[in-house]
Design a protein that fits this description.
Strand order of the largest sheet of chain A: 7-6-8-9-10-13-14
Helix content of chain A: 40-55%
CATH architecture of chain B: Orthogonal Bundle
Distance between the termini of chain A: 75 Å
Radius of gyration of chain B: 19 Å
Shape of chain A: globular
CATH superfamily of the largest domain in chain A: Response regulator
CATH topology of chain B: ABC transporter involved in vitamin B12 uptake, BtuC
Oligomer: heterodimer
Number of strands of chain A: 14
Largest sheet of chain B: 2 strands, antiparallel
Strand content of chain A: 15-25%
Chain lengths: 367, 304
């Protein structure tokens, strides 16, 4: 009897260890699957699963099937490194991730050391691609573009005489806020307030009172939707009638769930809506048939995996060196439209546009 | 002046919430000399039960705000108290009488367990609640700057003062309170004198959890957003408040909470929001250097 149990256990262990068949290509997406930014992890998971399913249905990559691993970094830099190591141990050749810049940057060192290709769908901090790591690419824009665009928009439209700039001390938040301030300075405008908040904090009443006292009429936040939502909500409660503006970390319905109607008129910068892209029409339709609206970074994650699949096909190899070579020279046909990368790994010609939150949905303002 | 007043309102509200949670830490420490690290999680569970109760009442069609609030308050207190009781029964009572650190480790384990339990059952996303209590008063006006206090802030402050009074009275005047104070002095001696020690300690946990539930409900109403992780930060702040006020003392917990809330509000208001936590903890360090048992704590008598 005991021997039988042992054999069964042994067989089970063998089954576990064997995992995917040897011929499969293991790729991964990594992001905040749990924690306060889990809404974005959900977008990434949905996008990645759909991409893998569609690519496999079309015959896979180099005649092999893709197998998707999902890594959860909870937007915590320490956990991101741990997840990166785990993924490396699972022999992934490509990671579509991470979401938060503060996770993508430390994780990219691990991938660089281990020779894993990384394409981030969402990390916009310039430092990600500025450090000269050859294996790092991204399909989104950069915060020096985003912050500069936001600043230009504010100056051109003349919104805000007294501007308060707040960030959440994260790589993304502080980076974006600083680029915004730089953009304002170029036009000779200086914000009346520059403050930092703590991620996870719930009470911003003291800060809002301070802004009310200074007569602030434009609040710019470098940070994520949970803090943004609470600030907007508490601004309304205290009767601070200032325009609120932030970046691409507000592109989730969860922002509106937090603010309710007080979120009306909130401005945010994001790339031109990928859902409206003709190249994405079919994929968007399939998502909607499943009852999911591919908002925010869903299609970006989808595109990152498309880029990998096409690069591998064009290089006829999974070898990192050849992949990088192809990525830098070729053009890729994705749900975001045609994409090509520059020497650093950034998308060429990325741009930003202004969105407004209106009755629970965001739509493009342009300008 | 008006600016000062508004920051005062902000600080007192925040402090009242810290105080409500801090009382739970203080009572448990006072009686069995143990820091219940799972208390922050009990507060988080209270918030979740509140939000679930609101949804249920909405489905049942009870939408008259005062009635709904009262029902949610009762439901949250009862269910959260059950959690508090269960945690004590499962994780602490079997370890009573073992060495001092065992229940502490058990409490940390319980805290991690409860966090993951809620995350698995309720998901990791934030749970929003649309504003239930709206409106407020303008206390003063200076040009365009208005000093406002919202109805929910009034409710938080009044309820906190009320509960603190009730619980202080409970401990000072009732037989249960007498039993608690006896246990505080000497568990074994209290048992010899006929006090049901297990029951007293259970009830202490139940009371602490009920207060945490009130704080959870207030947080849900005031901020409108909860997630499975809110217990961590709130727990640390409340624990700090309890230590600052003198752990083991109920008015001390309240005072510590208020002080912490005010320091945070005024530091954010007059200096920078970035370093408000640093300021709060610096004050804690200074107080503990000069008053090692906290503001209202009794000097520890070494029991031999």
């Amino acid at each position: 009897m005991r021997r039988l149990v042992l054999t069964a256990l042994g067989a089970a262990a063998w089954g576990l260890a064997a995992g995917p068949a040897a011929a499969d290509i293991v790729i991964a997406t990594a992001g905040p699957m749990t924690g306060q930014y889990a809404a974005f992890g959900e977008q990434m998971r949905r996008g990645a699963e759909a991409a893998v399913r569609d690519i496999n249905a079309a015959g896979g990559v180099l005649g092999q099937k893709l197998v998707l691993e999902i890594g959860d970094d909870a937007c915590d830099p320490k956990q991101a490194v741990a997840v990166a190591n785990q993924l490396v141990n699972k022999k992934v050749v490509f990671v579509a991730g991470h979401f938060c810049s503060s996770s993508s940057i430390p994780a990219s060192d691990v991938y660089a050391e281990e020779g894993v290709l990384q394409i981030s769908p969402a990390s916009t901090n310039p430092q990600l691609t500025e450090r000269g790591l050859a294996n790092v690419f991204r399909v989104c824009g950069r915060d020096d573009q985003q912050g500069a665009y936001a600043a230009k928009y504010v100056i051109d439209k003349g919104i805000g005489k007294k501007i308060a700039v707040i960030h959440d001390k994260s790589a993304y938040g502080k980076g974006l806020a600083d680029e915004f301030v730089k953009g304002l300075a170029a036009a000779g405008v200086k914000p009346v307030m520059y403050e930092a908040i703590t991620q996870g904090d719930k009470d911003f009443s003291a800060l809002i009172t301070k802004m009310k006292d200074m007569g602030v009429d434009l609040v710019y936040l470098g940070g994520y939707h949970t803090e943004a939502g609470l600030i907007v909500r508490q601004m309304a409660e205290q009767g601070l009638k200032a325009q609120f503006m932030s970046g691409d970390a507000l592109v989730t319905d969860e922002f509106w769930q937090i603010t309710g109607d007080t979120g009306q008129g909130t401005l945010m910068t994001f790339s031109p809506d990928p859902r409206k892209n003709p190249a994405a029409a079919e994929v968007v339709k399939r998502f909607q048939q499943e009852g999911y609206d591919p908002e925010g970074y869903t299609l970006y994650t989808y595109a990152a995996i498309q880029v990998f699949a096409q690069a591998a096909s064009k290089a006829r190899s999974l070898e990192l060196k050849k992949l990088i070579q192809v990525l830098r020279t070729e053009t890729f046909d994705t749900v975001l439209g045609k994409i090509d990368f520059d020497e650093k790994g950034d998308v060429t010609g990325a741009n930003y546009t202004m969105y407004v939150w209106d009755k629970g949905k965001y739509h493009e303002l342009g300008g | 002046m008006y600016y000062f007043l508004q920051q005062l309102v902000n600080g007192v509200t925040l402090g009242a919430m810290y105080g409500l949670i801090a009382i739970g830490y203080s009572m448990v420490y006072g009686i069995i000399g143990m820091i219940n690290f799972a208390h922050g999680e009990i507060y988080m569970i209270g918030a979740f039960i509140s939000i679930i109760s609101f949804l249920l009442l909405g489905i049942l069609g009870i939408t008259w705000v005062p009635l709904a609030l009262l029902l949610v308050l009762l439901l949250a207190m009862v269910f959260t108290a059950t959690y508090g009781w269960t945690v004590e029964r499962l994780a602490y009572r079997p370890l009573r009488g073992s060495f001092r650190l065992a229940p502490l480790i058990s409490a940390i384990g319980m805290s991690i367990f409860l966090q993951n339990y809620v995350q698995l059952l309720q998901g990791a996303n934030v749970k929003p609640l649309p504003p239930v209590v709206t409106g407020g008063w303008v206390l003063g006006r200076d040009g365009t700057f208005t000093v406002q206090i919202s109805n929910i802030q009034v409710i938080i402050i009044v309820l906190t003062v009320l509960l603190m009074t009730v619980f202080s009275w409970l401990i000072a005047k009732t037989p249960l309170g007498r039993a608690q104070r006896a246990c505080e002095q000497d568990l074994k001696m209290a048992a010899l004198c006929g006090v049901d020690v297990d029951r007293t300690i259970s009830l202490t946990f139940v009371m602490g959890a009920a207060l945490a539930a009130v704080a959870g409900l207030m947080a849900t109403l005031y901020y409108g957003v909860i997630d499975f992780f809110i217990g961590f930060l709130a727990g640390i702040k409340a624990f700090t408040a309890a230590v600052l006020g003198g752990i083991g003392s109920i008015p001390g917990a309240m005072l510590g909470g208020l002080l912490l809330g005010l320091v945070e509000a005024f530091w954010s208001g007059y200096f920078s929001t970035e370093y408000k936590d640093v300021a709060a903890f610096c004050i804690l360090v200074v107080v503990l250097i000069f008053l090692p048992t906290g503001l209202l704590g009794k000097p520890e008598v070494e029991k031999v």
